[in-house]
Amino acid sequence: MVLSIAHLGPSGTYAEMAALACAQQLQAEIKAEIQLCPYPSIIQTLYSVAERQSQLAVVPVENSIEGGVGVTLDTLWQLDVLHIQRALVLPISHALLSCATGLENIQTVYSHPQALAQCQGWLHQFLPNAQLIPTNSTTEALQQLDQDVSTAAIASQRAAQIYGLPILAYPINDHPDNCTRFWVLSPEVAPQGSHTSLAFSIPANLPGALVKALQVFAERGLNLSRIESRPTKRSLGDYLFFVDIEASLDTETVQAALIDLKAQTEMLKVFGSYCIYNIEPCNTESRFN
Amino acid sequence: MVLSIAHLGPSGTYAEMAALACAQQLQAEIKAEIQLCPYPSIIQTLYSVAERQSQLAVVPVENSIEGGVGVTLDTLWQLDVLHIQRALVLPISHALLSCATGLENIQTVYSHPQALAQCQGWLHQFLPNAQLIPTNSTTEALQQLDQDVSTAAIASQRAAQIYGLPILAYPINDHPDNCTRFWVLSPEVAPQGSHTSLAFSIPANLPGALVKALQVFAERGLNLSRIESRPTKRSLGDYLFFVDIEASLDTETVQAALIDLKAQTEMLKVFGSYCIYNIEPCNTESRFN
């Protein structure tokens, strides 16, 4: 049996690093052969699992600097068939890759918009005149580097190693505590864990509707580790709320809270209960590729 | 006296359309000469007003499909000197611009990531094999079009008019009710209006802390028209909450709620009280440029 893990590709992205860490965890737990499957977008990554082309998807949910990844939350709500199996927290440490001999020769910097945003202070200080060009992934940013020595890209140290590109500066993040949380998803109902994630919509224009919904957790002493609003896409001012609770779905307290919550909300979707693992960046080539 | 309005440029962006609508409103109210000043980023647009190089900034806050504009909220919190003067809601209607003779010849589509996301269903249906390339603005996407007939860009009808480019398809948004809310900001304390916006941080890991903060509004029958969380950038799981209330800052109810809120929060910043105006897309050349 081959277990395939879908992630945002190509090889060298942070999503691939998280997928590799997930593969290493699973290798210790199950006997299957594991294969990583890169997809060109987060939406395609999630659909590949919903349509059973892959068994698991590893997708970013939230970065500690740039915030939530809207497309992940929106697609999860729309699909309504995926369950969270575990969460992985990956420290993010960006490097400036370039074939230039020094910073003074760099005129253009390519990277994913989140990576450009996470290094904006460094870029403003050391490359104030460089043009910043967004790309679909940190790996895609590497394409021009060996043809044009006036260009640079922001990516991981691992990407530099895979593609044989020189690192001009490292680390270049503005905030040292930069990390990204990923969810590992599959169509199977999740085992229980320390955290539970769900989302709901509430009647629009009803004063206190959100407070009433959140109160079902507060009055039971359940801590919310996160709340994020996303547009319903029906009209401006109409939202879904994504909530993480620090408790397992199979506790009586959470079950009672969810019964109350159902009465306070228009639509309620529970994405599962799971544990959070801190993982280390992986700098070496892997046998899972 | 010249009143300058900063916005994300270059000419042809939706932000410029909102700035033009703002200029037209102001023209009817004051006697000053009005000038639009395009900036290459939202951050630079906001800093230009904080540093008194421009009098007003017009920046996007939220799109009805893609959600909040994190960089606007983050910069507003950091600067802590700008006040909201008014809000403008602009309907967003995207066109596909290209010098190609038909859709079958298009291999690449350029646009701002938000515009690409807002048309993803249309692109998937009509250009399933096209490569999607992000750009810094919808206007920047137009640069290659006249040199390469295998490329297209997503931008407004107005951009097509300004740059003399043919429209191949219109409208191509997936959701007809697509609109973007802009804030008009200046260092001056705002006049009063129908809505009040503020942001606060709460003690981390205290169950019910967010509920207690929101309760100060619910128990007074004050409706929240929006709540959005943003990372504090200190550590994962530590948030700021941006809240819009449907009431004026100078009412006794709001004043009392804010006194209570101060006791429940770590840090509280009030961005002002203002009115919301629905504006029309502007398709003609303007004398404010």
Folded structure, characterized:
Two copies of one chain form a homodimer. Chain A is of the alpha/beta class. The first copy, chain A, has two domains: 2-91 and 180-278, D-Maltodextrin-Binding Protein, domain 2; 95-177, D-Maltodextrin-Binding Protein, domain 2 (3-Layer(aba) Sandwich), CATH 3.40.190.10. The first copy, chain A, has helices spanning 14-29, 42-50, 70-79, 113-118, 120-126, 157-163, 209-218, 252-264, and strands at residues 2-8, 33-39, 56-63, 67-68, 83-91, 95-98, 108-111, 131-134, 151-155, 167-169, 179-186, 195-201, 224-231, 239-245, 267-278. In chain A, the strands form two sheets. In chain A, strands 1, 2, 3, 4, 5, 11, 12, 13, 14 and 15 form a ten-stranded mixed beta sheet that branches. A five-stranded mixed beta sheet of chain A has the order 8-7-9-6-10. In chain A, helix 2 (42-50) runs parallel beside helix 3 and helix 7 packs antiparallel against helix 8. The first copy, chain A, is globular. The two termini of chain A are 16 Å apart. The relative contact order of chain A is 0.19. The mean pLDDT of chain A is 92.
